[in-house]
Design brief:
5 strands, 4 helices, alpha/beta, two-stranded antiparallel ribbon, Rossmann fold
Length: 97
């Protein structure tokens, strides 16, 4: 399954992202998790996110670049969700399988 982690704080401002997500949502074996929709209060359900990660064979992070970084909610997600027991290992330049 392909997991798309979508983190756009102002999705209504991005027509391109809207169209890409609409098209991706029509594909088989694609799950889209819109972080700002799921967690507007930034209270991430870590267990639910880890479950989604464990089902994925490919993870795509879709987000705008903000000052050469990711939006705040995605940064929080990256700090809290990945865990070694998921088969992920952290390394200097990101997360690897």
């Amino acid at each position: 399954m392909i997991l798309i982690i979508y983190a756009h704080p102002y999705p209504h401002h991005s027509h391109a992202n809207k169209r890409m997500l609409e098209q991706a949502g029509t594909l088989e074996n694609v799950e889209i998790r819109s972080l700002y929709h799921l967690y507007p209060d930034f209270n991430i359900d870590v267990a639910a996110e880890q479950e989604a990660l464990s089902r994925a064979s490919l993870i795509v992070w879709q987000h705008p670049m903000q000052w050469y970084s990711v939006p705040p909610l995605l940064k929080l997600w990256m700090d809290k969700v990945p865990h070694p027991r998921l088969g992920l290992r952290s390394w200097r330049y990101g997360i690897a399988w």
